[in-house]
């Protein structure tokens, strides 16, 4: 059996879990306005205790690598790297938007059309979002980017097919992307539930990161500002 520790701190959600052969067996999640730095260590201890595992029992540690909150990503990645160093375990980096798409398709599969497109969105301040576009087979149609949403965004593709916009950045589409083919789901968030199978696939293929040099996928340079919520940005 393969046991992996999963860490997701790229957004307001702090999510930690243990997977066994690609299936979640223990999970802790919170959207409370508290520091991820406080929550992630507590959650790791709780899922390890619940499963009766030690760090030595783990096969790998996976972390959501971004894009997302600068501070949240640093907390998750530094925590994952620390465990990998201390326990001598491989590190797996999972792109946040890819995991969101995988999870959204799985959760909503009964409501989807074969021609549907999927655009996860993470809030990047003001009218900007981190997003990427994929089809139902999760083939990437446009790579991850920081996009400023306006009334012309996605109009060409919306003329021919439905696009699902989901994530905490999707609310920015409601008033600007006014099209019957634009389907907006605001309350869909990143979770280690959506990382479990991708992590197992990466482990099976031995797709590991260089622990010493691995950095989060920030996408944009950090710009200092007053944090809106303790522990994030």
Taking the sheet with the most strands, its summary is: 5 strands, mixed
Counting helices, strands and paired strands, the structural category is alpha/beta
- Could you say what the CATH architecture of the largest domain is? 2-Layer Sandwich
Number of helices: 5
Give the spatial strand order of the biggest sheet: 3-2-1-4-5
N-to-C terminal Cα separation, in Å? 37 Å
Helical proportion?
25-40%
Broad CATH class of the largest domain = Alpha Beta
Spell the H/E element sequence.
EEEHEHEHEEEHEEH
Strand portion, in percent? Answer: 25-35%
Count of discrete structural domains = 2
Number of strands: 10
Q: By CATH's scheme, which homologous superfamily of the largest domain applies?
A: ATPase, nucleotide binding domain
Broad shape: globular
User: What would you report as the Rg, rounded to the nearest angstrom?
Assistant: 18 Å
What does this structure look like?
By secondary structure, this protein is of the alpha/beta class. The protein folds into 2 domains: 108 residues, 2-Layer Sandwich (Nucleotidyltransferase, domain 5), CATH 3.30.420; 89 residues, 2-Layer Sandwich (Nucleotidyltransferase, domain 5). The protein is 25% helix and 27% strand. The strands form 2 sheets. It has a 5-stranded mixed β-sheet, sandwiched between helices. The chain has a 5-stranded mixed β-sheet with strand order 8-7-6-9-10, with helices on one face. Strand 1 and strand 2 form a beta hairpin. The longest helix has 18 residues. The C terminus is likely disordered.
């Amino acid at each position: 059996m393969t046991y992996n520790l999963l860490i997701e701190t790229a957004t307001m959600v702090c999510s930690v879990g243990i997977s066994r052969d690609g299936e979640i067996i223990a999970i802790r999640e919170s959207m409370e306005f508290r520091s991820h730095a406080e929550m992630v260590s507590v959650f790791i201890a709780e899922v390890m205790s619940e499963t009766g595992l030690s760090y030595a029992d783990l096969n790998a540690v996976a972390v959501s690598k971004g894009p997302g909150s600068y501070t949240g990503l640093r907390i998750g990645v530094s925590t994952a790297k620390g465990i990998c160093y201390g326990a001598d375990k491989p590190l797996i980096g999972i792109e946040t938007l890819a995991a969101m798409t995988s999870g959204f398709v799985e959760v909503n599969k009964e409501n989807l059309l074969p021609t549907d497109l999927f655009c996860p969105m993470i809030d990047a301040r003001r009218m900007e979002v981190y997003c990427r576009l994929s089809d139902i087979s999760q083939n990437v149609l446009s790579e991850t980017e920081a996009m400023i949403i306006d009334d012309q965004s996605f109009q060409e593709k919306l003329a021919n097919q439905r696009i699902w916009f989901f994530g905490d950045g999707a609310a920015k589409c409601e008033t600007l992307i006014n099209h019957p083919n634009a389907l907006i789901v605001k309350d869909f968030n990143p979770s280690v539930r959506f990382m479990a199978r991708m992590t197992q696939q990466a482990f099976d293929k031995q797709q590991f990161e260089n622990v010493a040099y691995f950095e989060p996928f920030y996408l944009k340079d950090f710009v200092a500002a007053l944090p809106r919520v303790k522990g994030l940005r």
